[in-house]
Write a structure and sequence with these properties.
Chain B: This is Metastasis associated 1. Chain B: Pfam families: TEDC1. Chain A: This is Tubulin epsilon and delta complex 2. The complex is a heterodimer of chains A (about 525) and B (about 475). Chain A is mainly alpha-helical and about 525 residues long. Chain A is about 65% helix and about 5% strand. Chain A contains 21 helices and five strands. With about 475 residues, chain B is mainly α. In chain B, about 60% of the residues lie in helices and about 5% in strands. Chain B has a two-stranded antiparallel ribbon with strand order 1-3. The chains are: A mainly alpha (about 525), B mainly alpha (about 475). At the A-B interface, α2, β1, α4, α15 and α16 of A face α5, α6, α7, β1 and β2 of B.
Chain lengths: ~525, ~475
């Protein structure tokens, strides 16, 4: 047995979950090779344990799947989004305008909230993120507050869907605004010591942008470029063709087939001053604060919460009481009509009681251990201790009595014509107790670290609960394996070792068994 | 004359109220049968049976897992806790448009079933019977209904009324499929994934299994938990970012920022429209539930007549529901534990009592007052201990999903739980659970030590740390 013991030591050194599992299997394989010794180790464990462990694994996998779905969604939201502006150009009634795509229905900053495909709105759209970027980055330098802000805000975009001379004028104004903003930003960034990196980037891009802006005849490009440059998305704003290529590529990558019905080139020609044909890049980080929920949703959500609170409020009015009485009477009649004897317990109730008794057992034991460990300084304390222990004994006796009753009910039954299969655990203990309106409860956290702690603790609690359940099951199944006197002699040592590790160490560590050879 | 007309009017009013009540009920239930079905069921018409079976099946099956995910273009809104199950394929039942019938019983039972309707009718019937039995449904007639689901509409109607009378069935069903608008954390204990799907085949079909396989499974489980922890941390970080980036965007001031579901809706308008539709259909169901509440008295009066129309069940020998096997095992385990505890206590008490009696021979009067005081104190402590398990632990413990809201440390005004408190509660629960686990393990260790003592000629070296 010594080689195996040595290997056990090895496996202990490996430690950890993978180590234990792998080592266990390695031992097994080695044992298999050794033939006769292998038979001893291959003692069989009840299949029910495998089922339980597989259940536990499935539950874990289920959590993992949900988490991954959640993660994918979060990651997607944090990446830049792409909105296809062409679907909104024509301003068709069924379509959502560009503004709605990016910033549904209304912009927060007080710009005229006409949800139309109008250019003016798009212009102010483009201007505003600039302002917020500037505002955020130049927070320490109040002098950098850009003055164009009021100007563009007062710009009332025309409700027309097609561009008009007014739009052209607005666009010109916007271009000037952007130039100015860029200049301000340039000075801001140059002045800020701390934003060195920022200044490098924006300095270079700002330098290129104004030249492009001023020199461009086609407005199309002018809008795209400064915007793109100053977005620190790392997209190099080089040639317009490249922008377009990028956008086309992105669009195909996104695969939003349902929406990408591009109006024909004819439409494009009609709108020479259309907003940049390249899809807008939107990052949550930079423009998140500008989002606004659509009105329809807000109405529906508030109605939803109102209805839920109404539903969950337990008002005692006459009608409610009358209904409750009617229900109780109905239940009584049902019982009597079926010849039900009286206080039979359903399986769910028995299970619930057994759960409570488990809890009782652990609490009682805990208390007992506390009392046994406590030092009794004087007679009073000794008496206290004695009485407590006697009280615990009495309570334990009562619990046992209750168990006998439950057992008697189970045993003394007739098999009714019910199907025999095992019922899935009735609707989860949580569902039964949970008030559905708890969902409206808020949980406030102040920092990511706090949230992480909370989530980690919750997972740990769930894991511990699962471990305790498994431990109970393992105890019930494995202890009889090693304790019962076997006809073939003592149980194989490998089995003892495995059982010990599973039961006492959670499968993480192994003990070592050495054969004590008599020295003769 | 006037009295008769008034009475007629009352009857007419009452007659009007009943269809309203039933209509409200059918709008609220998932896959709710039409009011006509209810009426037919009273007369035990066979054509009313299948929709009622289906409705009961949906109401009684546990929250479905994501066994057969039907990934539609808009993703499910993410959550830290329980998310919604993916949108089920359209079913044949007359569900209101847009309301999701929860994905039926996962794959194994669906074998051989018609694709969109979930499991076969026989499986549905069996599940309904099982679930009702485990909840203690008193009537035998239900058990005797044929499994093809062709008959028994009156009995099913009674079963539905029984479920409605016993507890807040409608609220529970609505809560199960509630549209989650926020990022949720489920704080309840014993969360859903405890028993996913149908019971594992514990019939030992594979025969006895090697114990090394068990060790391997345990190791795998530990690894999975570790992966879960890391993924969870990452998700928290991302959530924190999203919450802080959308600060100030929400129309509801108390929330302050958008959740992932809401941001997703803005990113993907198609998904947003679907969310809106679901929200609106849920609102319709909620309104129907409120309408039902106002009118349910009439329904109960009607159900009395239905019950009266049933033939009386012959007085049969009382039968009690058979507790499933796992319940019996749990019972035995608890019994063993309690028995062991009892013996230990006995062993501790007897010598102390003897020592006490020896020391304080007669009952001096100066002791008796002290004794009484001590008795009272001990009695109160033990009563508190009893309450600790009978009332199910700390009643103030919040359970159920809560919506996460990131807010700066504010004064304790305003609604909502504070994360710090919840963390404290979780820590104490963690400590409690760890203590239980350690205690169980030490019990095992003692038993195995006894075993080791029985095997001579061996040295058992325990792993370090103990």
């Amino acid at each position: 047995c010594c080689p195996r013991a040595a290997r056990a030591g090895e496996s202990r050194a490996l430690g950890g979950g993978a180590g234990a599992g792998v080592a266990g299997r390695a031992v097994g394989r080695a044992a298999a090779r050794r033939g006769a010794a292998g038979e001893l180790s291959r003692r069989c464990a009840p299949p029910r344990l495998v089922a339980e462990l597989r259940d536990a694994l499935d539950a874990c996998a289920e959590r993992q799947r949900r988490l991954e779905r959640s993660l994918r969604a979060c990651r997607r939201l944090l990446r830049p989004w792409y909105a296809d502006p062409e679907t909104t150009r024509a301003g068709r009634p069924g379509r959502r305008p560009l503004a709605a795509l990016l910033f549904p229905c209304r912009l927060r900053a007080g710009a005229a909230g006409v949800p139309g495909g109008s250019l003016g709105l798009a212009a102010s759209l483009l201007a505003l993120p600039r302002l917020s970027c500037l505002r955020r980055e130049a927070a320490e330098l109040p002098a950098a507050e850009p003055t164009p802000a009021p100007e563009t805000q007062e710009e009332a975009p025309s409700p027309a869907c097609t561009p008009s001379p007014q739009d052209l004028k607005e666009l010109e104004l916007l271009t000037q605004t952007l130039e100015k903003a860029v200049r301000v930003r340039k000075s801001v960034s140059k002045a800020a010591e701390r934003h060195k990196a920022l200044s490098l980037k924006s300095g270079s891009t700002a330098a290129s942008a104004p030249s492009r802006v001023s020199g461009q005849a086609g407005r199309r490009a002018s809008e795209t470029k400064p915007l793109r440059c100053i977005h620190q998305t790392g997209v190099p704003a080089e040639g317009l063709p490249e922008c377009r290529l990028l956008s086309a590529g992105d669009r195909t990558c996104k695969g939003k087939g349902a929406r990408a019905t591009k109006p024909g080139p004819g439409l494009r020609d009609q709108l020479p001053l259309a907003a940049p044909p390249a899809p807008e890049v939107f990052t949550l980080k930079e423009k998140g604060v500008l989002l606004k929920l659509p009105t329809a949703y807000r109405k529906a959500a508030s109605q939803n919460s109102r209805l839920w609170t109404q539903l969950s409020s337990t008002q005692t009015s006459d009608s409610v009481d009358a209904a409750t009485n009617a229900k109780t009477q109905f239940l009584q009649k049902m019982k009597m009509a079926s010849g039900w004897p009286g206080s039979g317990l359903s399986a769910a109730e028995v299970e619930a009681e057994v759960g409570l008794l488990w809890k009782a057992c652990s609490l009682l034991r805990q208390r007992m251990e506390e009392e046994l460990l406590a030092d009794c300084a004087d007679w009073v304390q000794e008496y206290h201790c004695l009485l407590t222990l006697e009280g615990l004994q009495a309570i334990t006796g009562q619990c046992l009595h209750r168990l006998q009753e439950l057992r008697a009910e189970m045993v003394g039954q007739q098999l009714g014509p019910w199907p025999e299969e095992r019922c899935p655990r009735a609707s989860g203990s949580c569902e039964g107790r949970t008030d559905p309106t708890w969902s409206s409860q808020l949980l406030l956290y102040s920092s990511t670290a706090e949230l992480q702690t909370l989530a980690a603790l919750r997972l740990r609690v769930a894991m511990l609960e699962q471990q305790i359940h498994l431990e109970k099951v393992l105890m019930a199944e494995l202890l009889p394996l090693v304790s019962t006197p076997e006809a073939q002699g003592p149980p194989p040592l490998a089995l003892c070792r495995a059982v010990h590790s599973l039961l006492c160490e959670g499968g993480e560590r192994f003990l070592t068994i050495l054969r004590d050879e008599p020295a003769s | 004359m006037g009295r008769r007309r008034r009475a007629e009017q009352e009857r007419a009013g009452a007659a009007g109220a009943l269809p309203d009540a039933i209509a409200a009920l059918s709008r609220t239930l998932p896959a709710g049968p039409s009011p006509e079905t209810f009426r037919r069921a009273k007369f035990d018409r066979p054509e009313a049976a299948p929709p009622l079976w289906r409705m009961l099946f949906l109401a009684l099956s546990p929250l479905p897992g994501d066994c057969a995910p039907a990934p539609r273009a808009p993703p499910a809104p993410p959550a830290l806790g329980k998310p919604r199950p993916p949108r089920a394929p359209p079913t044949a039942s007359p569900a209101p448009a847009g309301s999701r019938a929860p994905q039926p019983w996962p794959c194994p039972l669906a074998a051989g079933a018609s694709g969109s309707c979930g499991p076969a009718p026989e499986a549905q019937v069996r599940l309904v019977k099982r679930a009702l039995r485990s909840q203690g449904y008193p009537r035998r007639a239900l058990a005797q209904l044929p499994e093809d689901g062709a008959r028994g509409s009156r009995e099913l109607l009674l079963a539905l009324a029984w479920l409605l009378a016993r507890g807040p069935l409608l609220e529970r069903l609505l809560g199960r499929t509630r549209v989650r608008l926020g990022d949720e954390v489920a704080l309840c204990q014993g969360e859903a994934p405890a028993s996913p799907g149908p019971p594992a085949a514990c019939g030992g079909a594979d025969g006895p299994v090697d114990i090394r396989h068990l060790q391997w499974l345990m190791g795998k489980l530990r690894l999975q938990w570790r992966n879960l922890m890391t993924s969870q941390q990452e998700q928290c970080a991302l959530l924190g970012k999203i919450h802080s980036y959308t600060r100030g965007c929400h129309s509801d001031r108390s929330l302050g920022h958008l959740s992932v579901a809401e941001t997703e809706m803005l990113r993907d308008p198609e998904g947003g429209r679907q969310l809106l539709r679901r929200l609106e259909s849920e609102n319709a169901r909620l309104e129907a539930a409120l309408a039902w509440r106002r009118r349910e008295l009439v329904f109960w009066q009607w159900m009395d007549t239905v019950l009266g129309a049933c033939p009386l069940e012959a007085a049969q020998p009382p039968f009690l529901p058979r507790i499933p096997e796992s319940g019996a095992d749990q019972l035995e385990m608890v019994a063993q534990q309690l028995q062991a505890l009892h013996e230990e206590l006995q062993g501790a008490v007897e010598p102390r009592r003897a020592a006490w009696e020896a020391r304080v021979g007669g009952s001096g009067s100066e002791w008796s007052a002290l004794q009484r005081a001590t008795q009272e104190a001990v009695g109160q402590e033990l009563a508190a201990l009893r309450r600790a398990w009978e009332e199910g632990g700390a009643p103030a413990q919040p359970h159920g999903p809560c919506r996460l809201v990131k807010s700066d440390a504010r004064a304790s005004g305003g609604p909502g739980l504070r994360a710090a408190e919840v963390i404290g509660a979780l820590r104490s629960r963690e400590a409690c659970l760890e203590a239980v686990l350690r205690q169980l393990q030490s019990q095992c260790r003692q038993e195995l030590a006894q075993l080791a003592a029985a095997l001579p000629g061996l040295i058992w070296i325990l792993p370090p740390g103990h």
